[in-house]
Amino acid sequence: MCGILGQITENNQRDLVLKALKEIHHRGPDNSSYEIFGNVVLGHNRLSILDLDVRSNQPFSSYDNQLIIIFNGEIYNFQKIKAELIEMGHDFKTTSDTEVVVHAYKQWGIESFKRLHGMFALCILDRTKNKVVLARDRFGEKPLFYYHDQKQGLFFASELKALKILIGGKPEIDSTAILDYLHFGFVPAPKSIYKNLFKVKPGYFLEFSISNNSIVQCQPYYNIQFQKENHRSFEQKKEEFDQIAKQVAKEISISDVSLGAFLSGGVDSSGAVAYLKQSNQKISTFTAGFDVDNYDESIYAELVAKHLNVQNTNKKITYEDFKVAYGKMVKMYDEPHNDFSFIPTYLICKEAAKHHKVMISGDGADEIFCGYPRYHKLKKFEMLQKFKSIGKVISKIASLLPVTSNLRRQAILLEKSGVDFFYYIMCLNFSPDMADQVYGQVLKETASNYTSRSIIDEHLRELGLEKSLIQQQRYLDIKMTLADDMLVKVDRASMANSLEVRPFYLHPLLTDFAFSLSPNELVTSKDDKHFLKKCLEKYLPNSILYRSKMGFTFPLKEQLLKELRPFFDECISYLPDNLINKEGINRLIDLHNKGDRNFIPQLNSLMFLGYWLKLQEEGDE
Known about the structure:
The protein is an alpha+beta fold and about 625 residues long. The protein is built from 27 helices and 17 strands. The strands form 3 sheets. A 6-stranded antiparallel beta sheet has the order 2-3-1-9-8-10, covered by helices on one side.
């Protein structure tokens, strides 16, 4: 795992490159270097995982020096690809996966990215064709930001903080991105929080012509394809999954340094650890626990650890830990991000990094195998939508309830369809009909000309609206919840500790298989993640598989407006009045304290935004 950056411009400034590399030193503390190739400067910070020899430091050149690569990630099947390339006449001088990626690109071009089992963000300089190619893995496990200007050139980096240094200016905050954040809890790709600074979307590549200083194309090399139902039986599919998961466990564990695994005690991480044990991996596990029983899964993690005979370390996280880590992690994210678990994720990564350089996680299973509670609710909605008259009656009655009512929010879905239906579901932060309560004048003006609904519309057009409700929601969760929320959280929290995290369920062999499953196999009207749970019954007890889903989150509900209230008030004070309406915040607090509804997600999003804006001001001074 590493940090990469580059600039393609006639006015290369080495001091900015060095400063930017230093800013993301945490992503790769084992080696830092850059090289200049005419108008192109490529920089790399290395976290050594495979082939620890200095010959594998980057930037790395092909044998003929025509291709130069900087690469952030790991390719699990590189040995298999390497063997294939050797048969085709390629020679290798290292045992690294980086060299394999270069040769694969030389052989197959853009198509080579589809062959890579792993996570990556990379830049390849093709000196023969005088072009640069940026690419990002299928699901967005590794980040890549860029900025292009017809006069200045192309700049890119693993993190926004480094990119801001490279462009040497103060980018303007995008108010439409703030609207997106207030609705979704994150800034969805390809946007960033800044105008004209973008994310390379997951599964995309960007081709840049050095001669013309222009982006030639920015296209997907990979598209999610939900296959039609086939004639294999449920039991046959379970057996096929079992064999694939065992293969993945072996492939994903390849490393020249020690590795461990996260274990929450939930289905996903427990399943990953079970398969790692099946592949005879000697592995230790790490758990984050809390003092609040309703949020603490560590007792279940201990049960799983005992059942699977693995050594488990339990890190208890307190409210004091939250306050100490908050500022550092807001800075690490570079843009607003409302995920309650970002602090415990950071702290458990910090603990794990004391013992290992590589960790395996259960991230991605909820999106790939339909694990969120909304999926079995969608089963019921599909049935109710067949009786539209009943739905309209329920919706009209619910419309009499306060706009802040959770029951009203659920019932109003019955009269919605298409893009509006999913827009309402995806607005887990501020729903479309309540967000304007906290808008200041700037956001009101922005909202009069822009709606975040357009993002949902674009994604569903990519998929096709003829798909079932479950497949449409699954697609949105993979494209948005997974890529822009969960994987961002894991990357920033792990890289802050110079730790590599490999999500077990995002291995292409597993995702390709999962996309062949029908909605009826994935979800029942009572059970989410139905197929995965059935597959894991042979390795894990039912008391783990079929207990209520808790989720991995910090217990803010109990203390945000109590013990943490002074800190909350401080963060809110940094919100400009022309951006956020403070009276609207006070109304939310009053409703929350009355018990009308849990508004902690909304209040936390405003707290994060306030602290982030404070850091922006401090950085500009």
